[in-house]
């Protein structure tokens, strides 16, 4: 399905995900069981698709961090990362390895592999399917398991936070997960530093400079006119 009119590149199209009723029932049962244990194995900084956590909590914490930086006059930047076709690039090998490291049983991991290996693609030419292609990576849109499995893969990036170099973090994470950072959609926002400094950092990371107001998980990071919306503190 084309994302825009007059598409000339395959990347400007999105796949249509079709899932059988039987698989959807099986995946729903597995996703419910996975959702119950996800909070015990995912870092606290991840608030999406994790039971008993809310996106708003993560946004409020991010706002507090930005506000504290501004009050302390400490120099810094906010680097907002956008993954390029995130679900499509997930490496099955690293996903299985992460599940193993998180102490999921071999039986459970085999169930996950079977769910992934069932994926096939067909290219429609004038409305007719021209052959089937076996998938070797990626997660299906609309699959009840996909959101949880993607959260597990992204959690690897959180565990690498102790590395000192941001570029090294992104390089290591890309090699492990096969997820590519879309630098055209990733942004850098300054805190208590000059526009020239921000421009130099953005040039090093090859990303875009974005002035406040900055959207994060669909909600704005704190600015002087939205304090009443987000509250004054997070306990």
UniProtKB/TrEMBL annotation:
<dbReference type="InterPro" id="IPR043502">
    <property type="entry name" value="DNA/RNA_pol_sf"/>
</dbReference>
<feature type="domain" description="Reverse transcriptase">
    <location>
        <begin position="1"/>
        <end position="235"/>
    </location>
</feature>
<dbReference type="Pfam" id="PF00078">
    <property type="entry name" value="RVT_1"/>
</dbReference>
<dbReference type="InterPro" id="IPR000477">
    <property type="entry name" value="RT_dom"/>
</dbReference>
<protein>
    <submittedName>
        <fullName>Transposon TX1 uncharacterized 149 kDa protein</fullName>
    </submittedName>
</protein>
<dbReference type="InterPro" id="IPR052343">
    <property type="entry name" value="Retrotransposon-Effector_Assoc"/>
</dbReference>
